[in-house]
Amino acid sequence: MPLTDTAIRNAEPGEKPVKLFDERGLYLEISPIGGKWWRLKYHFDGKEKRLSLGVYPDVGLKDARDRYLFSRGNGGNPSSFRNPLCFLVFSTMLFSRSTKLVFTACKLTSSSVLAVLT
Questions:
Q1: Whole-prediction pTM value?
Q2: Is the per-residue pLDDT at 97 higher than 60?
């Protein structure tokens, strides 16, 4: 069952980190001192990996789901979301809703973009 904002706000920390799962690897990790981090659990090249998507409440449930969809949508390693160029284009996409532009830009590297601009 997907998470709700009410369930997130009412979640209490435990003695060990608590994980509240949303869907398809997206979850909220609550530390014993009360910090809440959005994480994505995924497999790449046969290894299990985790990616931090932001801190709650700075990144709300809807934003965390958008970041999850974006990171999974480029067809490669979801951690390519960390690429500064990719993140810049993602921020622009939130306003323009042009996903094709984002997925194309994330496959580029910063050096190839600089070569085109110079």
A1: 0.67
A2: no
